[in-house]
Amino acid sequence: MENEKRAVSLQRAQELHEEIRDFLTFKKEYLMDMSMRRDVMSRQHKKDLLAYFDATESDWNDWHWQLKNRISSAEVLKHFMHLTEDQVSLLNEISQKYRWATTPYYLSLMDYEDLTYPIDRMAIPSAEELNDAGELDPMHEEYTNPAACITRRYPNRLIINVTSSCAMFCRHCQRRRRIGETDQIEPNNRIQEAIDYIKATPEIRDVLITGGDPLMLPDEVLESIISRVRAIEHVEIIRIGTRLPVTMPQRITPELTQMLSKYHPLFINTQFNHPGEITQEAAKACTMLADAGIPLGNQMVFLKGINNDKYIVQLLNEQLLKVRVRPYYIFHPKQVKGTSHFAITVEEGLSIMKYLRGHTSGLAIPQYILNAPGGLGKIPLLPKYIQEMDDTHVILHTWEDKEVEIIY
Ligand code: SF4
C-alpha cells in the first residue's frame, strides 16, 4: 500500500515537473541574458555616461547628481545611442507635446541598439505617442478633488498629490495630465489645505501620499508633510507611492529611511514593470526600505511589449519577492492619451493571471485591477473559476482546469 502511494506521488511530481519545465528553461536563459546585459552592457554605459559628464562614482551614487544630469534632449541622447536624423526630429516633435527625461542610471540599463527593448520603451518616446486615442484624465480626477491636492474616491481613504515632479517621465505614464512642463512642488498653503481637509474628515483612516513622485521632495519638506498627517489622530496608516527605487534608486539614502521609520505604520508601493529593472542598486534600495520596517508592495501596469507575457510576469514577481517586495496590484492600462500603443485586452491580462495561479506561490500573485473610468474605483478582475452555483452545489475549475463539484 505504501509503495502504491509513493508511486502515485512520484507520478504526480513528474507531471508537476513537466508543467514548470518551459518556464525553468525560459528563466535560465533570461537570467543569463540579463546578467550579460548588466555585467557588460550597463557597466560600459555607466562608464560612458561618467566620462561624458566628467563625473565620479560618488557623483553617480548621489541622487542630486542623477537629477541634475537627466537626459531630456535628442541632441544629448545621440551621444550614446545611434539615432537617425528622422529619429532625432521625431523625438524633438514629441518633446513639444509630452515631456520626456531619463536619469543617467536608467539610461545605463537600456539597449542602445534596440529601442524595442522593454527598458528603452518605458523611457524613450516613440512615434506611437502621437496617436491621440484616449483621454488625458480618464479617471476624472478633477471631479474627485474636494480640497487642494486631494483625490477622494473611497469612503475612508484618500490621496494627497504633493508634486508633479518625477525622476523620469515614463512613456506609459497613466497620470500624464499631472506631469507638467515644470517640476512643481505643491506650495505649503495648498498642502495645509489638504491636511486641514483630512483633519476635518474623521472617517479618513488611510492617506496615500503621491504625485508625480513624493520622494522627489527634499527630506525636510517630505517630513513636514508626513509628520502633519501622522499627527492627525484618526489617520491609522500612511502610504507613499513612488517609482524612485526603480528609476533613481540612489534617492533611497540612510537619512531618508531613518526619517521615514519615525512615522510607522508607513507603507511604500512602487512600480517595477519588468525584471530588467531589478538591478543591484534597486535591490539595495528596497532592502534599505524593508530594513527600516517599511512593508513594500509592487504595482505593475500591464504594458504591451514590456510585460504582456506570462513568463515575464512570473519572473518579475518571483524576483521581487527575493528583494522583499510583495506583488500587490497589476493594473490594467487606462485609456490615457499618448499611451494607446501599450494597451492590452482584459482577455489577455486574465489569461496571464490564470497561468500564474498554481505555477507560482500565492505571494507572487497580485490582484489584477481595472480602474473604472470616471473615477468610479477599482474593479478586481478574476479568471473564471466558478462554473455554476446554487443553494445545493457549486462547480469550480482548478488551476489545471479540472472540474470539481462541492455538494452542500
Ligand atoms: S514615475 Fe509614475 S507618475 Fe512619474 S512619470 Fe513614471 S509612471 Fe508617471
Word description of this protein:
The chain has helices at 2-53, 57-60, 63-68, 74-77, 85-97, 104-108, 118-123, 188-199, 219-230, 244-247, 254-260, 280-291, 310-322, 346-359; strands at 150-151, 157-161, 206-210, 237-241, 266-270, 296-301, 325-331, 367-372, 377-380, 386-389, 393-397, 403-407. It contains 14 helices and twelve strands. The model has no long low-confidence stretch (mean pLDDT 95). The chain has 408 residues and is α/β, with parallel strands linked by helices. The chain has a domain at 141-380: Aldolase class I (TIM Barrel, Alpha-Beta Barrel), CATH 3.20.20.70. A hairpin with a 4-residue loop joins β8 and β9. The structure holds iron/sulfur cluster (SF4).
Q: What is the string of SSEs from the N terminus onward?
A: HHHHHHHEEHEHEHHEHEHEHEEEEE
- Please bin the fraction of helical residues: 40-55%
CATH topology of one domain: TIM Barrel
Write down how many β-strands occur, each being a DSSP E stretch of 2 or more residues: 12
Indicate the overall shape. globular
Structural class: alpha/beta
> Distance between termini?
32 Å
**Main sheet overview:** 9 strands, mixed
CATH superfamily of one domain: Aldolase class I
CATH architectural type of one domain: Alpha-Beta Barrel
Which strand order does the major sheet show?
1-2-3-4-5-6-7-8-9
Beta fraction of the residues? 5-15%
Q: Which ions and ligands are bound to the chains?
A: iron/sulfur cluster
At the first level of CATH, the class of one domain is Alpha Beta
Secondary structure topology:
Elements: H1 2-53, H2 57-60, H3 63-68, H4 74-77, H5 85-97, H6 104-108, H7 118-123, E1 150-151, E2 157-161, H8 188-199, E3 206-210, H9 219-230, E4 237-241, H10 244-247, H11 254-260, E5 266-270, H12 280-291, E6 296-301, H13 310-322, E7 325-331, H14 346-359, E8 367-372, E9 377-380, E10 386-389, E11 393-397, E12 403-407
Parallel strand pairs: 2-3, 3-4, 4-5, 5-6, 6-7, 7-8
Antiparallel strand pairs: 1-2, 8-9, 10-11, 11-12
